[in-house]
Amino acid sequence: MNAKVVVFFALLLLLPQVLAQSIVPAVVIEPVQGTSPLELYPLEVREYRLKVVNLSNAPIENVDVVLSVPEELAFVVDGADKSERFYSFLVLPPNAIEERIFLVKALEESSVPLRISASYGAGDAANSSSTSVLINGGGVDFTSRLGNASLEPNARASAFFSLANNSDGRITNIRAELIPGTGEFVQVTSPAFEQAFLDPGQNVPETEFGFVLGPGTGERVIVMRLFFTDSSGAHVLEKSYSLDVQYRDVYVLLLVAAILALVVVSLYMRRKKPGQQTEGIKVEASVKVEKTH
Question: pTM for this one?
Answer without folding.
Answer: 0.74
